[in-house]
């Protein structure tokens, strides 16, 4: 039954999911919050949980046969043909400190491959969407990755030095110091910037599927490439190391420097 849904049907549901998440998160943004530490020591608030619960309610009504993999409420029918991967607030630290650079991430996988990716930035009023064979858009306007093909000309971004262990930081530092510019911060917004052509490389580690699969769908639709540090496609079982690049030439050079 799920295979009868069209890309337009899926996009409608993705918009509804993002709208529902924003209705909860924006209401609590820059207000006093009860911050809880999860098992991995990342902060979580009532905004995260309420937003994901609202998203799951929509999927329960619209896509009861589809699987769900969400940050806050775990796995549900993850072996289904189609799986929605949800991060209601990516960049919780940004959220609780009042920074606008947090977003809602939505990915739709079919047989393990990303068919739709969304990065919604509620505070900025930017909704970035990519669909396989359908291109990428920001607020309805087509976007495309840059044509950067050389590390020496690349603008690279990562969320924070704190996400790397010592070995991974040494690899990132080696690569990023060869680039024209490196920037820190931005959480998921870096991936949107890459899709829009203003950033050329994003390299991170320690991520979960709900962190990278939505951005993967967006960047691939915008003409970029996203893999793990070994150059393998990303999926639910990937190790959390991500390299996103504007071109295959730049991607290959980045992988070589990370492995040097």
Bin the strand percentage.
Answer: 25-35%
Cross-sheet strand order for the largest sheet: 4-3-5-6-7-8-9-10
Poorly predicted regions are: none
What is the 3D form? globular
Query: How many β-strand stretches?
Result: 15
Count of alpha/pi helices:
7
Helix content: 25-40%
Whole-number radius of gyration? 17 Å
- Average pLDDT across residues? 93
Question: Could you give the distance between the termini?
Answer: 48 Å
H and E string? HEEHEEEHEEEEEEHEHEHEEH
Largest sheet, in brief, is: 8 strands, mixed
Structural class: alpha+beta
Oligomeric nature of the chains: single chain
List keywords for this structure.
five-stranded mixed sheet, 260 residues, alpha+beta, globular, 7 helices
